[in-house]
UniProtKB/TrEMBL annotation:
GO molecular function: hydrolase activity
Keywords from the UniProt entry: Hydrolase
Entry-linked Pfam families: Lipase_GDSL_2
Annotated SGNH hydrolase-type esterase domain residues: 233-401
EC numbers, comma separated: 3.1.-.-
Cited InterPro entries: GDSL_Rv0518-like, SGNH_hydro, SGNH_hydro_sf
Low complexity bias spans: 14-32
The organism's place on the tree of life at top rank: Bacteria
Name of the top EC class for this enzyme: hydrolase
Protein name, per record: SGNH/GDSL hydrolase family protein
Organism: Hyalangium rubrum
Disordered: annotated segments: 14-41
Length: 415
């Protein structure tokens, strides 16, 4: 029986809620905001993957045997799509507090460099204690037997397997000493993380230094355990968890769904992105992962008014074409939008309604109708009171309502 998958979800970014994104299938150059805000990774291939030709009258003995799913495997327990870059000129230790959505006995940690070269001197992992202190002895992280590595721009480097038992929703401190450029997220969403000049990866006490709340360096943590469902949420700042200047990814709807369902729901949301950005970076930020079974899609808010209704639907169709060999998609309707910072608001309102109607009617993916649980009964363009913070982004209560509806739909479909 094939594994189902959750549809990707998209929202907006702080200060870039309605930024238009160009069509990656066209020959037009992307606008300046794309070049300034999105890491220079290779764009998707022009050609789409197609199904193999149909073979009629195939004999039973000629049919390929489906691959067996291993009982134990490495699957993601944490992920962040790190679109931007941050450089440090001298040796700096980052200590990231990271929640894990999967239980198992071994880990693999994947780091990602930024827009230029990165040297990692040493890295450790431990259970997280209060205020930057370790709650267990730091365990070295190695890379092909070495304590560190040096790589060029935009490279993912995965560690050797680490004997380190973790439970569902445990919180870890990953500490790493680096110099150069690291990939990084746009918003503050990881409270309890720190940065300090010098080499402190093995320090068991709090390292001091400055608070550092953006996801940085650590792209993915895979956990070896019983093979099961793993959901990936793909979207913009609504999915990434933006509410205000300082956020907590534990309050974002994907993490809340994870807590309610008891399965990993990892986050590939990127503030400000639309379909162009998602397709352009899909290879490194999504398809580079292994063990994902389902994808949640909430995407399109940042494309409204920038393209025609037909182009918007074509973008979603292309995304589904690329994702379906990788995961089973689930697609959400777009949330209410009470204003538009970029583009004509009347066009935005009309286009959102057309897109949502198309999402509900399409047959490529299961639908989770988040508009239906966040809109006012008498005005489809307004949030229910208390569910938004600025007319575009959901409040903490809005994320809880979204998570409850996503959980309900998934359970109703057999999860």
């Amino acid at each position: 029986m094939s594994l189902l998958s959750l549809g990707l979800w998209s929202g907006c970014g702080p200060g870039a809620e309605d930024v238009a994104s160009p069509d990656p299938s066209s020959d037009a150059e992307p606008p300046a905001w794309v070049e300034d805000s999105i890491a220079p990774v290779p764009p998707p291939l022009d050609g789409l993957e197609v199904a193999p030709p149909l073979v009629l009258h195939e004999r039973e003995e000629d049919r390929p045997t489906p691959p067996r799913v291993p009982a134990i495997s490495f699957q993601p327990g944490f992920h962040q799509a790190l679109r931007w870059s941050h450089s440090v000129g001298s040796l700096t230790t980052f200590r990231m507090r990271i929640p894990i959505g999967r239980a198992g006995d071994r880990l693999r940690v994947t780091f990602r460099s930024g827009d230029s070269g990165l040297t990692l001197q040493k890295a450790t992992v431990a259970h997280a204690g209060p205020s930057g202190a370790l709650a267990s002895a730091p365990v070295p992280i190695t890379f092909s037997g070495s304590s560190g590595f040096s790589v060029g721009a935009r490279v993912r480097v995965t560690s050797d397997p680490i004997d380190f038992p973790v439970g569902f929703r445990d919180e870890l401190y990953v500490s790493f000493e680096v110099k150069g450029a690291l990939s990084v997220s746009a918003i503050n969403a990881f409270p309890g993380s720190f940065a300090r000049s010098g080499a402190h990866a093995s320090t068991p006490s709090a390292i001091g230094g400055a608070s550092w709340q953006r996801a940085i360096g650590v792209a993915t943590i895979d956990v070896e355990g019983p093979t099961g469902r793993v959901f990936l949420a793909l979207g913009d700042s609504i999915t990434e968890g933006y509410i205000d200047t300082y956020n907590d990814m534990r309050n974002a709807w994907p993490t809340l769904v994870q807590a309610q369902l008891g399965v990993p729901v990892i986050n590939a949301g990127v503030s400000g992105q639309g379909f162009w950005g998602a397709l352009d970076t899909l290879d490194q930020e999504v398809l580079a992962l292994s063990g994902v079974t389902d994808c949640l899609i909430l995407l399109g808010t940042n494309d409204l008014s920038a393209v025609t209704d037909e182009q918007l639907q074509a973008r979603m169709t292309r995304l589904l074409d690329r994702l379906q060999p990788f995961c089973q998609p689930w697609v959400s309707t777009l949330l209410p939008k009470e204003k538009s910072n970029h583009g004509n608001y009347e066009v935005v309102k009309a286009s959102r309604l057309v897109f949502n109607a198309w999402v509900r009617e399409q047959k490529r993916a299961h639908v989770i109708d988040l508009e239906a649980v966040t809109r006012q009964p008498n005005n489809i363009h307004l949030f229910i009171d208390g569910l938004e913070v600025d007319g575009i982004h959901p409040s903490a209560e809005g994320h809880r309502v979204m998570a409850a509806e996503a959980t309900r739909v998934l359970r109703d479909n057999g999860l």
